[in-house]
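Write out this protein's structure.
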Amino acid sequence: MKDKLICPKCLSGKTQKRGRKIFCHECKKFSSLMESLELMVIGGETPKEETFTDGKIQTISTQVPEKMTDDELLAHLGIDKSQWQVAKVKYSRQPVYRKAQESRHVRVGKDTVSWKNDTGGIRVEYTYGVQVWLTRKTEEIKATSIVEGILQRLEEKAPKVPKKSYRKGDDGLMLQVMLPDIHIGRSTHIYESGEDYNIELAFRVVHEAIESMLHKVQSEKIEKVLFLVGNDFFNVDNEHKTTAHGTPQQEEQDFAITFLAGERLLSYIVERLTEVAPLDLLFIPGNHDPHRLFYLGRVAQAL
């Protein structure tokens, strides 16, 4: 077998070392030697493409200190997990034989002299050889590209809104607004959980909270507003009406309707808070809705 430098950007083995960098003839990009993956490729050739359940895959062989989860393995190899996913992984335990040594220490005045002596024995350590089959996240990449394209077109065609003028304050006060556990879409009944809850009631609760808060600070000189969006803004994370970890939830509407409801609610909050001072949004995913909150954050860029 022969060591081969692998491009960390596209995992191609068609690379050429140029000083302290490598050039990839596949993606036409440079990478530093530190970024490159010095992987052992079977036969000293480029990563072999094979037919798998999801089509063509990249096969990589290397050594790791221990068995890892898929995410840990991708991070260890320096592979972008937004572009690639592990289709299959195979470990093999490999012994490494080293000379057994013992440490000796002698006190000489105020100093300590240390050294190691060979004991004449053999010490056995173990590493793991790993073979990884990677598939490119084609559908996710396409979806992300489509979303990015839509947002770009929206930004280009969006009407130019004149900048608002705010009163200047000397106090440097910032208003922080946080409304956790809104759970847009959750449906509960008083005879089941002790209270009624639905989209209409969620809107009413948020409206009362925002208006009450703005009334309390209307005499303050606010220079900036920070709104923390998330901590279970939505009740479910997918069209199957479950959380991100698969826990079923009581949801009153379908996926699209509750997402549009969340978009309308966020638009109202943004509109009201920007009347006070310049607004920053910080999205904090909860255990119920991390993926939907990401989508909402992308939509918020167009607000």
